Amino acid sequence: MMKRVALVMSLCLAPSVYAEDEVADVWKAKCKSCHGDDGKAQTKMGKKESIVDMSQVAWQAAESDADIRQAIADGSPRNTKMKAFKDKLTAAQIDALVGYIRTMKAK
Ligand code: HEC
């Protein structure tokens, strides 16, 4: 009986835990090479392309969630290095990345 309760509980908890893990994995696989682990873009590409430091409070304030979502989905009109990800990621993954980028804001 206890076993069954534990199983049901782990099934209920799994999706949210998984979602958090997954967004971090997506960032590592598809974004980190240019934007860095922490969004500060202290990478070769980041320096070469002068990619913005996403942890900056001013950047976080200036960009709406819709702005960030659009940059990820459609890429940047100013720099083709920032490609459109709408065919590579699901809408839910893009939304999760917006949330993930919000967690990078400097404290
Ligand atoms: C090949 C390098 C590269 C990769 C990989 C990359 N980006 Fe970018 N990204 C850029 C560059 C360069 C810019 C700057 C574009 C500009 O100045 O308009 C940028 C800009 C952005 C912006 C907008 C910043 C602004 O101020 O408008 C967001 C948001 C963003 N990237 C998110 C992501 C996410 C999320 C991923 C992974 C799914 C990703 N990027 C992957 C190079 C990259």
TrEMBL record:
InterPro entries assigned to the protein according to its UniProt record, in alphabetical order: Cyt_c-like_dom, Cyt_c-like_dom_sf
Stored SUPFAM superfamilies: Cytochrome c (SSF46626)
First and last residue of the signal peptide: 1-19
GO MF term list: electron transfer activity; heme binding; metal ion binding
Domain annotation Cytochrome c: ranges: 9-105
Keyword Chaperone: no
Family matches, as Pfam families: Cytochrome_CBB3
Keywords: Heme, Iron, Metal-binding, Signal
Coiled coil residues, start to end: none
Protein name, per record: Cytochrome c
